[in-house]
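Need tokens for this chain, all 233 residues.
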Amino acid sequence: MANRGLSVQELLGHFKGRRAGIIRALTTDAELFYQQCDPEEEPMSLYGLPNGTWELRLPEEMVPPDLPEPTLGVNFGKAETSLDQWLQTVAAHSDSWLIAAAFSIASNFRFGKKQRETLFKKINDLPTVLEVVKQFYQESPATSRSNSQATSGERMHARQSQVIAQPQEAQEDEEDDIPCGSCGLICEGDEFWIFCDVCKIWYHGACVDMTPEIAGLMKKYTCPNCSRKRPRV
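Here are the structure tokens for all 233 residues:
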């Protein structure tokens, strides 16, 4: 990296942008992030970008890379632990990466002791990604919303009580005759189903890699087919 000069405030802006992107992935974009974390794919990393967006991708091929790499393999392990623990684990690793990236840039631009002290004091004044993620879900639990504001997950649990209307073309049929939009099978027993707010189709949770826990955090659900039509942030 060329030493053209970089101020503490400029580097802090880069840090805040990357931090904002990761927070977005783990909170408001958690549905999309969860769906993109395919454990069948190669190990991937979550990158926060200076413009406040995020991306899930393979690490840089350059060795050594220009910046420290985020934790590899965030797309693994989501099925082996609770949703909260998985998100918090990703958040904690992301905090470590943000600090490492900031220190690396500061070192490359030859920040002196006072500049580093100023930078990391300003960083330390911000809540960590982990703290923000914990607070986000504590302040918006599923139980705090009324039925009219129910999340997709809550609507699935309340399917028998008709919290939301079924798709127009299915309203005249018996509820148990609605086929899954993925496998085409009819609802049987107490299977977990979820309704896509975009295409208005019901799916088995297992068919779209969705659990009641992750659905309970969503205000709206978008199925994989509709998600693929949306541009990645």
